[in-house]
Structure formats: C-alpha cells, structure tokens
C-alpha cells in the first residue's frame, strides 16, 4: 500500500504508530519501563533540548521577506509559486530584498556576478532562509550568491572542468570513468545554481567568463547514451545527473527510468537532484513528478534492481519542517535517499556545522554518503578547505552517529582519477598544500595531484606560490617524495 501525504500529520504520529503486544512477550509496558530505577547510568544525561538536529523550523519563515509577507503556507508550498518567484536576475533579487538589505550588498552582487562561472538562480525557499541581517556570513548566501569582496585570487591550478569529464566522455552527455558505472547527463539546468558547481563548464546559461557546453534535455539526443550503455555489458550502475532530475518532466523521468531498467545488465539507478535541499515542497505538491519517481523505484524493486535518489544538502540551515515532511513521504513510499555534500568554507567546515548536518539528515532517514573535498573549480578559491582541515573534520565526525550514516570524505581526483578517500594520499606536504593520490582502479599509470587553497597555507607556503617560476619544482618535489616518479602526473 502506498502512503499518501495526507496520512502524515506529524512525526510524533508516525512514531506512535506502534502497539507492543506486551501481554504475549512478558515485557513490561513502556510506561513502567521508563519509570524503573537504573542503578548506574555510567554516562551523563543529555538534555533533550540540546539536541538541535531534532528541531525543524515550522514557522512561516518566508513572510519575513517583504514581498512574501502575505504569502500563505498553501501558496508557498505550491511548486508553481516556487518556480515563478525564483530569482534569476539581479533586479529581482533587489526587488525581493528591498528594505531588508543594504544597497551596498546589491552592488557587491552585481560586481560578483561579473567574476562568477555560474548564473544566478535562487529558489524563494532558499531566499527566505538566508539571514538577511548578515548575508555576508550566511551559509546559504555563500553557496548561491557571489559577492565581489568574497572572491580570492584563484590558485594557479584551478580550472572549469577540473575532473576532466570531457576526456572520459565516449558520447555526448555520458561519462564512463569507472569500469561498472556511468554518469548520464540528460540536461544542463537545475532549480538553483550553485556557485561552486563542479560542472561549471556546462551547467546553466553562459556567464561573463564562461561559454557553456550544453547537455540537451531532449529524448532524441539521449539515444546515443542509451545505446552506449546497452553496448557495455560491464555497466551495472547508472547515475542520472546533470543538471538536475528535478527539472525533468515526469514523462521524461519515467522514460529514462523504464528504458534503463530494461537493459538487462543495469542493476542500479541513482537519480541525482539538489531539489530536496532547495525546493522540498515539489515532493509534496508536484504529484506527477513525485509519483513518477516512486513508480520507477517500485518498478525497479519488482525487477530486483535498486533505484534511489541522491541529493545534495550542505547545511542544516537548508532543512525545515517542509523538508522533513517531504523526506518522510519518500521514505514511507519506499524511496531511499542518500546525500552527497560538498565541503565548503563558511558553510559546513566546522565540527559543529558538519555534525548538525549529518545528524539532521540521519534523523530524516537521508543517508549521508559522501562529503567531497572541494573541486579545483575556477572562481571558488574562497570556498575551499585544505586536505589537512578535511582530515581533522573527518576524525571528529566519525563516531558521532551510526557508521552507515557517517559520510566518507573523498577527493575527486583532479584530472579524472575518480573518488579517493581523502586520507589515502601517497604524499602530502602541508607547507605547499600539495597532495598526491594513486587510483589504480581508474588508471594505474597516473598520479593525481590536488592543491590546497593558498590562504590556508602557512606563510612560507604562501610565499612559495607567489613565485611562478617555482611552481613546477614544487610539484616535481611532491612527486619525487611520493616515491611514484614512474607514474604520469595529472592535475
Ligand atoms: C561519482 C561518479 C560516479 C559514481 O561513483 P560512486 O562512488 O559509486 O558514487 C560514477 N561516475 C562518475 C564519472 C562519477 O564522478
Ligand atoms: S545543483 Fe548540482 S549540477 Fe546544479 S548547479 Fe548545483 S552542484 Fe551544479
């Protein structure tokens, strides 16, 4: 039986959906168990009120935006309102934030957009969750709105396609890097645009600094990718990304799901969408889309194949009671959701912010899967952390909750080496910020090199990068010290 959204009124109600057959088991009723005296607790009590990850914003938070002052809950939850009010132009941002933000801030954004590899696109949901009293330091502002004074000079090794996806693309819109899995890119649009997008070379419209490669959202254009997957019996796993599966019309979502599930060797599908983090109400109000997803998951299960949703929350501030209800709806209808975060300075790079995120996701049955070391993308130097910081963060996070809800911290090796456990470097120099990885399952002839952001380095390290004539020596030294000089370095 499928649960409908109307069945869910509160998490308390869902939790109380149990009846212990105490008379049969001989176990005391829950009430009397709670009152029993425990002689020695060993551990200090935790004040339930301190467990912030269990608190979900239930207020009409969007009404603090002057233009949304009279918007009812029903209207705000309507996907049509979210689409219509999405901010894609500076003028719209200015109009919606008039009275709650200083004109200097808008001027900062205007100049910031001239340097940005991504266009502006902010859902009303995200716009309403930004702390407009201090937008400069807000974790959602940092992700979606560029500001001039925020930019740092790029590390000399930053690029638009830092993962070299275009080199591993046998047909348009498909990346085949690992043996048994492929990445299918059926479209190049998203409900929001993230400043740090790893596919800045393709996603969204052109900006002042980037002419984009396009992925076509048209079934006819997908035939080559489907034919390729069908021709490769070793491929068991298809990631459908983009762009964002939220932007696929329900019939196209179904078509992709059904066609791929029909290929006998394909065993696993993952639809990738940032949507739950930036427009969770779609899951509650766009029944055609949500039911298409649920139907593909159900069809997959019938065929003995796994279909899941991979999403992209970066901050607990993105999560409200709307999110909780959306995730509960998916969970109760058998849709497994996993999360992939990007580690971003000022967003989730402290123990507290990352632990809150991991716990909150876990509480909603969203499984924290990966945390990515920030890719070496042009225009994102201010958002990156060093490998050293990431390793420290991982140490602090592992153990705070269930192991299966503890994300793996990975570096997607620059130049196409694929994901590597951030700890697994063959050499790391904290002064120059150069780390060196091998990736035998992807290409055992290569050595992959990652670079920490320059302002995270000790002063002596920062000085070394100031002198361009030293750069090649710094890299050569790291390669020599790794003991893998015989491999071909890429970055
Ligand atoms: C991340 C990625 C995948 C999926 O990798 P998992 O580690 O299984 O999540 C597949 N192909 C490409 C090109 C990728 O970048
Ligand atoms: S949602 Fe994903 S693909 Fe789209 S801009 Fe953000 S990171 Fe890039």
SSE topology sketch:
Layout: H1 11-15, H2 22-25, H3 30-35, H4 73-77, H5 79-84, H6 90-97, H7 103-115, H8 124-129, H9 139-144, E1 174-175, E2 181-184, H10 219-230, E3 237-240, H11 250-262, E4 268-273, H12 275-278, H13 281-285, H14 287-302, E5 306-311, H15 321-332, E6 337-342, H16 351-363, E7 366-372, H17 387-397, E8 408-413, E9 418-421, E10 427-429, E11 434-439, E12 443-451, H18 459-466, H19 471-482, E13 488-490
Parallel strand pairs: 2-3, 3-4, 4-5, 5-6, 6-7, 7-8, 12-13
Antiparallel strand pairs: 1-2, 8-9, 10-11, 11-12
Helix pairs in contact: 11-14
The structure holds pyridoxal-5'-phosphate (PLP) and iron/sulfur cluster.
Pyridoxal-5'-phosphate (PLP) is lined by residues 175, 177-178, 181, 183, 239, 419.
What is the number of helical segments per DSSP (H or I, 4+ residues)? Answer: 19
Largest sheet: 9 strands, mixed
The secondary structure category is alpha/beta
Shape: globular
Helix content: 25-40%
């Amino acid at each position: 039986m499928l649960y409908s959204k109307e069945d869910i009124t509160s998490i308390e109600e869902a939790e109380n959906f149990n009846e212990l057959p105490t008379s049969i088991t001989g176990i005391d009723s829950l009430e009397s168990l709670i009152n029993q005296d425990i002689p020695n607790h060993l551990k200090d009590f935790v004040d339930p009120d301190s467990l912030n990850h269990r608190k979900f914003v239930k207020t009409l938070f969007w009404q603090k935006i002057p233009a949304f002052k009279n918007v009812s809950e029903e209207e705000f939850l309507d996907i049509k309102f979210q689409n219509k009010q999405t901010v894609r132009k500076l003028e719209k941002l200015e109009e919606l934030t008039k009275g709650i933000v200083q004109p200097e801030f808008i001027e900062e954004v205007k100049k910031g957009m001239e340097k940005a590899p991504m266009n502006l696109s902010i859902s009303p949901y995200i716009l309403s969750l930004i702390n407009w009293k201090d937008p400069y330091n807000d974790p959602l502002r940092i992700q979606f709105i560029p500001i001039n004074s925020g930019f740092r000079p790029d590390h000399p090794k930053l690029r638009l396609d830092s993962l070299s996806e275009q080199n591993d693309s046998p047909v348009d819109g498909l990346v085949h890097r690992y043996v048994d899995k492929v990445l299918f890119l059926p479209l190049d649009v998203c409900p929001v645009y993230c400043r740090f997008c790893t596919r800045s070379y393709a996603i969204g419209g052109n900006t002042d600094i980037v002419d984009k490669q396009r992925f076509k959202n048209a079934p006819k254009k997908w035939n080559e990718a489907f034919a390729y997957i069908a021709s490769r019996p070793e491929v068991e796993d298809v990631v459908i990304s983009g762009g964002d599966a939220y932007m696929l019309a329900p019939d196209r979502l179904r078509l992709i799901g059904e066609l791929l599930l029909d290929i006998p060797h394909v065993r696993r599908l993952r639809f990738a969408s940032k949507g739950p983090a930036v427009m969770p109400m779609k899951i509650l109000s766009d029944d055609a889309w949500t039911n298409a997803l649920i139907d593909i998951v159900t069809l997959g299960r019938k065929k003995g194949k796994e279909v899941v949703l991979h999403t992209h929350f970066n901050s607990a501030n993105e999560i409200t009671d709307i999110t909780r209800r959306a995730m509960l709806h998916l969970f109760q209808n058998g849709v497994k959701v996993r999360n992939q975060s990007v580690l971003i300075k000022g967003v989730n790079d402290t123990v507290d912010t990352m632990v809150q995120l991991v716990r909150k996701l876990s509480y909603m049955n969203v499984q924290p899967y990966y945390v990515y070391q920030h890719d070496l993308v042009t225009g994102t130097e201010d958002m990156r952390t060093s490998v050293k910081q990431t390793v420290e963060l991982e140490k602090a996070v592992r153990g705070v909750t269930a192991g299966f809800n503890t994300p793996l911290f990975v570096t997607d090796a620059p130049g196409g080496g694929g994901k590597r456990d951030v700890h697994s470097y063959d050499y790391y120099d904290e002064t120059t910020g150069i780390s060196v990885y091998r990736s035998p399952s992807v290409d055992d002839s290569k050595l992959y090199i990652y670079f920490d952001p320059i302002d995270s380095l000790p002063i002596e390290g920062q000085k070394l990068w100031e002198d361009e004539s030293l750069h090649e020596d710094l890299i050569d030294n790291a390669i020599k010290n790794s003991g893998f000089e015989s491999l071909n370095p890429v970055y």
